[in-house]
Amino acid sequence: MAQALEVASTDLQFQVNNTAHNTADFGFKKLILRRGSRFTIIVNFTSRGYKPQSDQISFIVETVLESLGASDKVEFQLSSSLSSNSWNAVPEKNVGSQLTLSMCSPPTSKIGRFSLKMVCTTQGHSRQFQLGEFILLFNPWCSDDSVFLPSEDQCKEYVLNDLGLIFLGSSKYIESRGWNFGQFEDRILDICLKVLDNSNQCLENPKEDCSKRGDPTYVSRIVSAMVNSNDDKGILVGNWGSSFSDGVSPTSWNGSVSILRRWNDSGFNAVRYGQCWVFAAVAVTVLRSLGIPTRHITNFNSAHDKEQDLRIDSFSDVRGRTLNITKDSIWNFHCWVECWMKRPDLKQGFEGWQVLDPTPQERSDGIFCCGPSSLKAIKNGDVDLKFDTPFVFAEVNADVVSWLVNADGTKRKIGINSNLIGQYISTKAVGRDEREDVTHNYKYPEGSEEERNVYRKANMTANMPREENEPFTIKMNAKRSCMNGSDFEASVVVTNGSSVKKDCRLLFCAQTTTYNGRPHGECGWKDLDHFIIEPQEAKTERFQVRYADYNKSLVDHNQICVTALVIEYDSNEVLVAKKVITIQNPELQIKIIGEPVQYRELVAEISLTNPLPNDLCNGIFLVEGAGLTDEQRLPCPVQTIKPHQEVKLRAKFSPHKAGQRKLLAQFNCDRLSNVKGCKNVIIIPHQ
């Protein structure tokens, strides 16, 4: 009887394969592959080598999923030619007792953890050997993969870039903020796979869920649901209030790594707290980890159309105050993500970028998730296509109807604005730390014939009267931002283009506001009776908002909504104008001391100047950066920072990855929070 073929050891070629599969940034401690691409392993046998004449070799690729009750596996024979359409393997080199194998997975394979086994059969007697485990991801570099992205530069940006920019603020004052996506940091890929394993779909029917993990439409929708924790074991709790004492303020996060590790290390208890840009940024990390090209998107003046009638109602009282009496809202900005994929579940022509929104706003098929919704469907008003296209269409296209609420509670329509919603839709540019405007991907130019035709196609309210040019108008002017600690001024120009004198009441009201458009506290008011405007006159009036009035009611993002209301006595005609002013925090200055070489200790000197007329006490600095350092919490070197005093802090770190990196820093204290800084550092590879 011939001697049995017996496996002694296996070399899974971590470094060679991970480098070839664009997964080297995950490290070389495990085999991480992308589906549809060839990889190589070396098998060493004990006393003799493989003899094709007498030995038969086959393989078993089996899903590694603890909750999977039954085995989910693929079996295939060693063959003579390599195919990319199915699991298969061919001998590449057979010398002595060593066999080098080329293997390939199909470009439609499910993703996740797998074990690889070899079955050796000699003269009818078979033995099975465990060769090892690997992780399989989506493959944007494979033309047959449904997430194939033809541009190499875009693959680098939307899959491999673990550092990025997100955009916040208002349509008139757009701020960029560094974010540590950190998908290649230690344990993050394993945690991202656990996100899938903890979904309701997997927990309720693991075999069915596992069978669908080759479909990026399905996987991305699971991620959309799991980033929020509203109805599952998801990652983040949303909080749009002003108290975060039992968790972390959303503005205090600098990256996704700390959030994902906290969720994992707590036994999958939701992390407190997130808001839209945090939900979206964590989704970017998870989806890029899994191999789906993804980018962070910000929509300024974003509509939350609760009633789904493509109309947002905005109410003001006779004092000019914005009232919170409707479920509709206009967010100063709102963030979601776009994923790149084919959509075989839709009719042809709707592939490409898909909108996915993990912020829990409305239920979709009974759960809090949104998308993926085809960007082409949104632009062309094809709101009958799944998933959640009408909701996203309204976020960038709804009309705003302004109402005046009288003292007796009655309401009067005072204006319609069809151009306000969906402005400066933004993402990070490919390969550059700059903003790219992608509004044209979402809609045709405002007021154009194409835009109006799409609006009518999408809805229901095509006969709504449009705003027309009137001889009696109001325009507000103000700086887009002012430094925290300073007073600022707004003004209105009221124009009377008619031939008769206008006797009016003019009111100004300033209110601190949350970024999702909810008024928080009144911080200024002015009432002018008998504001006379002569025929053909344009008259200007100024309004000052003082730091002493706004500082106690500022909430995260430091935004103040200034409203001007003009009521003409004879005709009872009403004009309204609003502007959001951003109160700007100082920026942390970062200086790198030392030669920036991989694995060599560096020092970051971080400086802050107190802009306020008040003392700052009990300050904390946060420092982190993918490839540079995990999050560090460092106390301020002085207990009290006097007005206009500069303080400096030094943070030590040893970069473990070469190339261009971003060091992110933040300062928080009792009176001043969300003070940020970002420094690009080019790390020289260790020789």
**Helix count, DSSP H or I runs of 4 or more residues:** 13
Q: Could you tell me the radius of gyration in angstroms?
A: 29 Å
Shape assignment:
elongated
- The helix content is 10-25%
Task: Give the helices and strands, then pairings.
Elements lengths: L6 E5 L2 H7 L10 E4 L3 E8 L9 E9 L9 E5 L10 E8 L2 E7 L7 E11 L2 E13 L14 H9 L2 E8 L2 E8 L7 H10 L2 H5 L1 H6 L4 H12 L8 E3 L18 H9 L5 E4 L1 H15 L3 E11 L6 E7 L4 E2 L5 E13 L10 E5 L6 E2 L2 E2 L4 E2 H5 L9 H9 L1 E7 L5 E7 L5 E6 L6 E3 L1 H4 L6 H10 L13 E7 L2 E3 L4 E9 L5 E12 L5 E15 L3 E9 L1 H4 L8 E10 L5 E11 L4 E5 L8 E8 L6 E2 L2 E6 L3 E7 L4 E2 L4 E8 L5 E10 L6 E9 L4
Parallel strand pairs: 2-9, 12-13, 15-22, 27-33
Antiparallel strand pairs: 1-3, 3-7, 4-5, 4-8, 6-7, 8-9, 10-11, 14-17, 14-24, 15-16, 17-18, 18-21, 19-20, 22-23, 24-25, 26-28, 28-31, 29-30, 29-32, 32-33, 34-35, 35-40, 36-39, 37-38, 37-41, 41-42
Helix pairs in contact: 3-7, 3-8, 6-8
Could you list some keywords that capture this structure?
single chain; 687 residues; alpha+beta; 6-stranded antiparallel β-sheet; 5-stranded mixed β-sheet; 15% helix; elongated
